[in-house]
Design brief:
By secondary structure, the chain is α/β, with parallel strands linked by helices. The chain contains ten helices and 20 strands. The chain is globular and about 65 Å long. The two termini are 41 Å apart.
Length: 404
């Protein structure tokens, strides 16, 4: 039976650790060059080596992005990029450009190659040809239905992995091929610099065609006709597996460690639940609810069930945010939970603690203590150490959150 891989994003070392701790089978990340996310910190060479070593000790794979569309003046730097990826022992390179694919085969013949969603793969003929060119995996365009994916699976080599995005931000342009950002603010979205003008508010005016108009929903702030909802397939793991999807990809290299932890954990638990009961899979409600406890836009299922009727989010460009991370657990000893603060909260607040592969635990500490064992009424200093008593034991790195 196909047990899909849970593939998590990491924009820096903190987010990488969150992905490892919360159950990722594999992590994808980028460096300073050739990656489609320039805003995160990303990974220097030594950081990359350390990350791969840490992941491999835990049986987790690491995929490195080189999925931009580089110009001529960038190509001389690509050989070193590939050599360092090989030296760091990354498990695969993710590439969108056919020229870069050929260069990887030249510089590192044994390197596993994944073809990025930026390539726009929508049919089995393209998938077959990329496999013949040396690709081990294809990351499908997000515009495909489950039926189309199943046909690609049926008409390609079983040795070819199929990866699909299942959660996170959606781009209004086909497979992320957009020029709006470059046109408006000279930031090239095809080289990782997208300013996301699709999330901005617009007023639509056509002064020379009276009586001809585009029907839009609008308010005093303008109209968000390009603003796509977020993708969420947490309830449909069984259908993704049945269609032949090998890897479930979570979008979000520019998002927080908390986002990575919570969403990775939810998909880890969902996949494990499916694997235990494939013939009668029904996702527990508490796992479903987890993906609503991170900052997100309204959710939809994208194109998986056909052309979506309601995939746009017209109200505004902001996120829905119902929970704040208030602390992270450092350790538990002798009935005491030791923590580091992330956001302010008060004595008497109901807290929820999320540990890897566990149902969240709700508790309300009756006393809070600072480092000197003095009682606290509020935990309000950035990164301050504090503690509370509890008979429960939580692993280091567990997240403590508070509903806003």
């Amino acid at each position: 039976m196909n047990k899909p891989e849970v593939l998590a994003p990491a924009g820096d070392e903190e987010r990488f650790d969150a992905a490892l701790n919360y159950g990722a089978d594999a992590v994808y990340l980028g460096r300073k060059q050739f990656g489609m996310r320039s805003s995160p910190t990303n990974f220097e060479f030594e950081q990359l080596k350390n990350a791969v070593d840490k992941a491999h000790r835990r049986g987790v794979k690491v995929y490195l992005t080189c999925n931009t569309l580089p110009r001529n003046n960038e190509l001389p730097f690509f050989e070193r990029f590939v050599r360092e990826a090989e030296e760091a022992d990354v498990d695969a390179l993710i590439v969108a450009d056919i020229g870069l694919l050929a260069l990887i085969k030249k510089y590192a013949p044994d390197m596993e190659i994944h073809i990025s969603t930026q390539t726009g793969i929508v049919n089995y003929a393209t998938a077959r040809e990329l496999y013949n060119m040396g690709a081990k995996r294809i990351v499908l365009a997000r515009e495909l239905s489950l039926d189309e994916i199943a046909e690609i699976r049926a008409k390609t080599s079983p040795d070819l992995d199929i990866e699909a995005f299942v959660h996170g931000a959606m781009c209004v342009s086909f497979s992320g091929r957009c020029l709006l950002s470059q046109y408006l603010v000279n930031r090239d979205p095809n080289r990782g610099e997208c300013a996301q003008p699709c999330r901005w508010g617009y007023h639509l005016v056509e002064e020379k065609r009276p009586g001809q108009y585009f029907p839009v929903f609008e308010d005093e702030k303008g109209t968000y006709i390009l603003n796509a909802k977020d993708l969420c397939m947490i309830d449909h793991i069984d259908k993704l597996a049945d269609a032949g999807v090998t890897s479930l990809k979570i979008e979000g290299r520019a998002k927080s460690a908390y986002y990575v932890a919570v969403v990775t954990n939810a998909y880890r638990l969902a996949v494990d639940e499916y694997y235990r009961n494939p013939d009668s899979f029904k996702l527990p409600k508490w796992i479903h609810d987890e993906v609503f406890k991170v900052s997100h836009r309204k959710y939809c299922t994208g194109f998986f069930f056909g052309t979506p009727d309601e995939s746009q989010y017209y109200e505004n460009s902001g996120y829905i945010r119902n929970y704040d991370v208030v602390a992270v657990v450092e350790k538990c000893e002798n009935g005491t939970v030791y923590c580091t603060q992330r956001n302010r909260f008060f004595l008497g607040d109901e807290l929820e603690i999320l540990a890897p592969s566990m149902k969240p635990v709700t508790l309300t500490p009756d006393k809070l203590y600072d480092e000197n064992e003095m009682e606290l009424e509020t935990v309000n200093h950035a990164m301050m150490k504090f503690s509370f008593k509890s008979d429960l034991v939580f692993p280091s790195g567990s997240v403590i959150r508070h509903q806003t």
